[in-house]
Write a sequence for this structure.
C-alpha cells in the first residue's frame, strides 16, 4: 500500500469525553483531503456473570440515540494510561453496585475505526458480590439481570444494538458456553 501522510492535525473541539480534530491528509494519488478524527483515551466494559449464569446489564438513556439502551456496565478510563482493569472494576461497582472476585480479559475492540480511536477492553467478571450503586451525577442507570439466550435473542431482534455489548455477549457465548 502506498503511503498516506498526515500534513496537519487541528483541534476543533476539546470535550469531556473526546477531542475532535480535523486532519489534513495527502493520499497516494497526491490529493490533499480533510478527514475527521476523534481521539478517545480508552474504556473498559464488563460481562458480569452471576453464579447462576445470568448476566448483569444496565439500562440507561443515551442522548445520541434519544432512547434507553441495554448495555454492559462500562466507562472510560480516568486518564490516558490507566489500566483498563481498574476502569472495569470501578465501572462495575459504580453502575451496578457489584464487585467481583475475578476479572479476565475477554476481547478488545475498536468501536468506530473510520474516524475514532476508541478502544474498549472487555472483561468477564465472576464471583460477584452485591453492594450499592455509586453513580456519577450525570448518570441514571437501572440494573437488570438477563439470561444469556435472552440477550442473544434481544440482539437478533435488534433490541440490543450497542456494539460493545453485542461483541461481548457473542464472544462470551462462543468462549464460555
Amino acid at each position: 500500500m502506498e503511503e498516506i501522510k498526515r500534513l496537519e492535525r487541528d483541534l476543533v473541539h476539546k470535550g469531556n469525553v473526546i477531542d475532535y480534530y480535523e486532519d489534513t491528509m495527502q493520499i497516494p494519488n497526491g490529493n490533499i483531503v480533510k478527514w475527521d478524527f476523534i481521539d478517545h483515551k480508552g474504556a473498559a466494559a464488563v460481562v458480569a456473570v452471576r453464579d447462576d449464569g445470568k448476566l448483569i446489564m444496565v439500562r440507561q438513556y443515551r442522548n445520541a440515540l434519544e432512547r434507553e439502551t441495554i448495555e454492559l456496565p462500562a466507562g472510560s478510563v480516568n486518564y490516558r494510561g490507566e489500566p483498563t482493569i481498574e476502569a472495569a472494576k470501578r465501572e462495575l461497582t459504580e453502575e451496578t453496585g457489584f464487585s467481583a472476585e475475578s476479572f479476565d480479559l475477554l476481547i478488545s475492540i475498536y468501536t468506530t475505526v473510520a474516524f475514532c480511536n476508541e478502544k474498549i477492553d472487555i472483561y468477564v467478571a465472576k464471583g460477584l458480590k452485591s453492594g450499592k450503586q455509586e453513580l456519577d451525577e450525570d448518570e441514571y442507570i437501572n440494573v437488570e439481570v438477563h439470561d444469556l439466550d435472552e440477550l442473544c435473542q434481544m440482539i437478533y431482534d435488534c433490541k440490543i444494538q450497542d456494539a460493545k455489548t453485542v461483541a461481548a455477549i457473542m464472544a462470551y457465548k462462543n468462549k464460555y458456553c
Remarks:
- The radius of gyration is 18 Å.
- Residues 60 and 139 are 8 Å apart (CA to CA).
- Strands lie at 5-14, 18-26, 32-40, 43-49, 55-62, 67-71, 74-76, 99-110, 119-129, 141-146.
- Helices lie at 84-96, 148-156, 163-176.
